[in-house]
Amino acid sequence: MLHLRPSCECCDRDLPPDSPDAVICSFECTFCTDCRDRLPGQRCPNCGGELLRRPIRPAHKLAANPPTTQRTVKPGGCAALF
After folding, report:
1. Which own/partner pairs from 30-35 qualify as long-range (CB within 8 Å, at least 24 positions apart)?
2. Which domain holds residue 46?
3. Average pLDDT over the chain, rounded to whole?
């Protein structure tokens, strides 16, 4: 099951479970669409994988399957990659 990480790894922008602006790679690295658009080749800076829109979990399933609250943020953001 997807963790639904709460924020962008680059800019720490909040990405709630219903956000259409969240993108993930196959390892669930999570970014906002603004940061993805500035990444070289729009690829995950961690693994080089494709970044695709994160699915939205139906609201009625969130209580039994909550998103993680653990934030993963790159020290200094992704500024060096842009």
Report:
1. 30/5, 30/54, 30/72, 32/8, 35/8, 35/9, 35/10, 35/11, 35/78
2. 1-74
3. 95
